[in-house]
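Pinned message: reference record for Polymerase/histidinol phosphatase N-terminal domain-containing protein
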Amino acid sequence: MKPYRANFHTHTTASFDGYNSYKAIYSKCKQAGINIIAITDHDTIDGAIGLLKWLKNNNKKDLEVIIGEEVTCTDGTHIIGLFINKFIPSDAPLNVIQQIKLQNGLVYFPHPARKDGIMQSAFYNEAIKLGDAFEVFNAKINNDFNEAAQNEIVKHPHLIPLGGSDAHYNSDILKCVCEINLDTKNLKGSLLSCNKENIQIFGLKKQSGDNNYFSTYYKVKNKLNLPQIVRNLGKFVFPLYKNFKERNTSYKLENVFNK
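Predicted structure (tokens):
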């Protein structure tokens, strides 16, 4: 095994709020030195499969893709399945976990302390025992949530501490990397058996945003119910704006978790 740089939480345009094209994801991964990327779109695996096809069609062999899905459970909790191969529909948290396990996937709890994280779920005590990985750093949220997750994971030594940028547009990908010794010939197995003490996570801490934002965001999104043509236009225009705005931005990542 050798050290790899990975990001375990990334979205493509397959997510309703995702603005990352396959070309942009590849480009930003190369810029960040990322060798392994988990594509975890909201309620679909189409983005992950699409990136695999794009890499093959463009003869890109230097980026490993983990097929994932960030499932929105019926109680609002988000749970990620990694190393899956079939779409998992919304259901109660314990049923979603069961579906991930039936595919021999890994159960990964993203932004666990946030309003839509597993720590807020009524099923937490049962679900946490069945989990495989815990997101101890998410570059998209207020870092207070990350610190709460880091304090919580010490109570559950069976969980693998991981981090992700929760990238929804290009520059997000640059905001978090994990350094882990892995074997790409047996990526899932080596992740499960890795020495957790040697996992290092580097990220850009965010100090804005709170739980109230997310409830407001989803209420507005549901009420707007924008036509598909408007959504498609947004997915084209918004990335152009964000990429132009942050075209010269460089992020100095710090070690945010190394225990």
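Pinned by admin. Summary line: The chain has one domain: 2-257.
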